Task: structure prediction
Amino acid sequence: MGAVLVLAGAIVAAGGAAVLTTIGSDGKVSSGDQTFATSGSAIVARSADLRRPDAVADIVGNPRVQIDLQSGKPLFIGVAPAKDVDRYLSGAATDELSNLDIDPFKMTHNPQPGTKRPARPGAQTFWLATGTSALDWKATGDGDRVVIMNADASSGVHAYGDAAVTVPHTTPIAWSLFGGGLLLVLGGVAVLLSARASAPSPRRSPAYSAAH
Result:
């Protein structure tokens, strides 16, 4: 029993330490400066990729996503329901991102052909959150899309900057795991020592002197 507690405690404590090491005490994970570019009219990403894993987001809360970009042209960054984005960009050339991870940063490009030039994104009313070169919002819906475009909806989007995700309550959860794991380890050690102390001593056979 004691060995089981020690092993379980070590695993739990290691999990807490790993969270603090990889995410940090502020709960923020950043991509660092990256290039977001397409020859089409828009770059589209699923907000679900920024909430992964969903089970974690459902427990600790929805993450806050921050995008900060620079470009030679005025930019538009927006978040909207997938159905509205699909309708708005129908017939336009876009680059749909999938398998998007922040740290280490990686993404898969899925270019979609088209010839239509969309209307200016800033004139649309379906956006849930918008920004020009920066956007800060809470990723609450798996069915939302993040869209990066030129403000005039022209093709050839080329932006450079950083994307970051802040997971809420990371520090207390990580320290709780770490502290709880240490308590399990100490409890397991105590059980082992107690079992060893209460174990009966091996009986010794009496020694007989040889008769003279």
Summary: Residues 1-25+169-195 form one domain. The two ends are 53 Å apart (CA to CA).
